[in-house]
Amino acid sequence: MMKFKRVIFAILIVSLISMGILHSQTTDTQEIDAVRNKSVLDSKDLQVIDNFLAKTIDDLIKTRDFTSIARTRTVILSNQSTQGQYAKQFSESAHKYISSGLQQAQTLPQERQFKIVLNLLILTDGLKDPRLADLAIAKLKDNNNVIRYWAVRCITNPGLISKLNIAEAANGRLARRITEELKQLLNSSPAPEDEILAVVTEFAAESILPETEILLKQIADIRIKQYADWSVKYELLDSAVLKSLANKINPADSNKSVDSARRIRDEPEIARCFAQLYSHIMQRYLKGQGLSDNNKQYLVSVLLEIEDKSLSKLLGKTPLNIKRAVEQNNLSLLGQEYERLFGNRTKAGELTSKLNIDYGTDANGRKLMAPQLLPDPPEIPKSPGEDTRKAGP
Question: Is residue 65 scored above 50 in pLDDT?
Fold first, then answer.
């Protein structure tokens, strides 16, 4: 997760600095400070809030100095309040002027448009206001991957999630709408970037809505497909995916019926996703001896963290030898642990049996006892002009 944050932050810095340092300005907050400290507001006070947001958001749009942009954002965020009248007006005005700014940006050259939209989305993310979610949702299909990332981040922000987890009808409707929009995004082709998968994983893991579990299954299936075609670039993402899946599984309930309320979760399907993804990761390590050192280290980190944090919980006190096999680079021992966990075509493994996992059927309709096997890695293309013919007459 930290790598993703560093990458996006680097992109952000470069993008904003490239705007050029033209001027710096400060915002007079004396009036808004006085209003924020009142317990009861009148119409003039509400107008002060509206004027404040009109001015500061306009500054944010027009300013080209990176330092001033960051300072203006801080001024806006620091003037939020939980006082009922103040918070309502602040939210309404923020929505009005951010929306207006996004509309203005559409008339500008592409580079300038990108920078304005980016700044407004970063502000929206900082505000953590459910009323602003629709502005970010409108940018989920943007052609620019940085804009898409920030749009997703706005609606998966942990601060926003904590507000949506409060049991209110409006919050539930918004959470379901966000979930539906993210489902559509995950179904898009090509699959979303790893950075986006990371923040959606965090959202699905933290939300109390059972509907968000389908997002975890979608992400797991995306990653399973990427492992199968050897297109995975950053294996560390799967630590978060696997831990989130494992946290949705209650092994004590896996082999017995429970009340209908508990069965809101589709545990068998979640368990299948967990097992299939982890098996592909282990198989990638076993078969991917041509991978880069970084990719191998990422795989090692995932294998060991999931063994320690998730398998120990799902299997109870059953001792595993994955760590020893990896530390000794003992592929034979790791292969034995793989078969012990996942079984083979004729016998179910411990994880499969414990969680009562169903891997579906083969082409002949026979029940699959183990996860799908990972195809062999693609051959490395030969260098141009390289003669691969055997010597001889």
Answer: yes
